[in-house]
Structures are given as structure tokens and as C-alpha cells.
Structure to design on (284 residues):
């Protein structure tokens, strides 16, 4: 998310045009990325898996450049090898084999790149592994991804506009000075409502449970945003990269989704097991 404080009296007259250009650029990029993600989710199978594996590889590349050029090169090579291993694992043993590939990749990254490298591999691996595991549920996989999109995107949009329009006390100014409590609360409410509405459209009647799940995942998404902001601040970076116009890098766009999807997968696996993680998340 990228919340802004309310414009104060006396700012430059160029502030409004700048805001308009930024918003149009953000919307255009979001539409392209969102449409691609929805199409991949609808199709499922290989297109969905390849979509998120490539996104994870991009995130890993950005993470490596935070640390150092040497770590970036090692992580790029290791990430490419892990991608090949993941494709082979999915083809021969199904989507759950990704878990073993991720564990092995994190351990190897720890040996070759240190703790920051291992953390990056876990972070990027979660982006690929969690959505693929959830979408692999033959009955509820698509509905779960739709709920995740509704929660993360709804939280992001509501927090962005509420933060700009309402302003107020800052959420955590030392880590992310532009985020406000008004934006965080609006985002949490939007996440809860989005989960309940999309779940109901998918035929799930327990709206209260879905709203609670949406609220939890929205909080996780916003914490993921703060986590990425803290990492960038630690390494003195403003954006993860400049791959996405108006948004920065893939990490800047997917930070909330990574943590929300990882939490959703953990809840689903705990309740539904390897056979039905999406059902474990949605059906209460």
C-alpha cells in the first residue's frame, strides 16, 4: 500500500496535477497486472503456476539487489535452479512438492548467501508456493484465490484513498511515514467485506466466518506492507526496483499479498491438510 497524508494548505499548485498523473499511472499498471493475475487464476494449472513462479523469481532478484551485487548473482542462479526444480516437482509429484523444493532452496541459500539470502528465498518462495498450493484444491481453489485478491486489493485501495482523504495519526512513522491509522482501519474493513461478498458469490453461506478470515488476512497484508517498508529502510532503498510504472518493483506491489497468501496457506493446511487447503481456509 502507499498511503499519503492529506494535502496541507499552502502546498504547491503542482501537487494536484502530480497526484493525478501518479494515480492514473498506478491505475493503468494495476489494471494490466490485475487482469493478468485474474486470467491466470481462472485458467489454473500450468499458466497459474508459471505466472507466480516468474513473479517469485522477480521478487528474489529485487531482494538480492537490496543486499549486494554478489548476493544478487548467487540468488539469481539459485532461484533459476529452484524454478527448474519446482517445475519438475510439480510435473511429477503435484503442487505440494513445492514445499520440499522451498525448504531445500532456503537451506542452500543460507549456506551460499547468509541469513539475508535465506530470508529472501523464503519470502520469494512463499509468493510462488502459497498461491499454487491453494489453487491446487480442485473444488475451492479458484474461490480461495478470488477471496485473496478481494482482500488484498480491497485493503490496498481503501487504505490508499482513506489515508489521502482522511489523514490523521500515522500508523508507524518510523517505518512508513505516509501510512495512517485511518487508512489501516479502512483497509481492514474493506478486506472483511470483500471476503464475505466474494465468498457468498462462490456459494459459501457462513459470511461471519469469511469476514473474520478477511479481517485477519487484511491485517496480514498490511503487516506485509510494513515489513517490506522496513526492509527497504534497512537497506536505504526507496523502491524495490522500477519494473512497474507508478508502483516501483514487484515487491512494492506484492508485499501485502505475499504475507496474506502465506497466512492463508498455513491456515488452510492446518485445517484441510495437503489434500484440501483451500477448503480448510474457506469452509468453517
Amino acid at each position: 500500500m502507499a498511503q499519503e497524508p492529506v494535502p496541507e494548505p499552502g502546498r504547491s499548485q503542482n501537487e494536484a496535477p502530480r497526484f493525478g498523473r501518479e494515480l492514473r499511472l498506478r491505475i493503468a499498471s494495476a489494471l494490466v497486472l490485475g487482469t493478468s493475475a485474474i486470467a491466470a487464476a481462472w485458467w489454473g494449472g500450468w499458466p497459474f503456476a508459471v505466472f507466480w513462479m516468474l513473479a517469485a523469481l522477480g521478487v528474489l532478484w529485487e531482494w538480492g539487489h537490496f543486499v549486494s551485487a554478489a548476493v544478487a548473482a548467487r540468488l539469481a542462479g539459485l532461484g533459476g535452479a529452484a524454478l527448474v526444480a519446482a517445475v519438475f516437482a510439480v510435473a511429477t509429484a503435484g503442487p505440494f512438492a513445492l514445499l520440499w523444493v522451498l525448504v531445500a532452496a532456503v537451506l542452500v541459500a543460507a549456506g551460499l548467501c547468509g541469513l539475508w539470502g535465506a530470508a529472501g528465498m523464503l519470502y520469494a518462495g512463499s509468493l510462488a508456493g502459497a498461491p499454487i498450493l491453494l489453487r491446487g484444491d480442485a473444488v475451492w481453489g479458484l474461490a480461495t484465490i478470488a477471496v485473496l485478491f478481494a482482500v488484498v486489493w480491497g485493503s490496498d485501495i481503501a487504505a490508499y484513498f482513506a489515508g489521502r482523504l482522511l489523514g490523521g495519526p500515522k500508523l508507524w512513522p518510523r517505518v512508513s511515514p505516509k501510512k495512517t491509522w485511518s487508512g489501516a482501519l479502512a483497509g481492514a474493513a474493506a478486506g472483511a467485506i470483500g471476503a464475505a461478498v466474494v465468498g457468498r458469490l462462490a456459494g459459501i453461506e457462513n459470511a461471519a466466518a469469511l469476514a473474520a478470515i478477511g479481517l485477519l488476512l487484511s491485517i496480514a497484508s498490511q503487516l506485509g506492507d510494513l515489513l517490506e517498508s522496513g526492509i527497504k529502510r534497512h537497506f536505504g532503498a526507496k523502491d524495490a526496483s522500477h519494473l512497474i510504472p507508478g508502483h516501483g518493483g514487484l515487491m512494492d506491489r506484492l508485499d501485502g499479498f505475499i504475507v496474506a497468501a502465506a497466512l492463508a496457506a498455513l491456515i488452510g493446511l492446518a485445517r484441510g491438510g495437503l489434500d484440501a487447503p483451500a477448503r480448510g481456509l474457506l469452509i468453517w
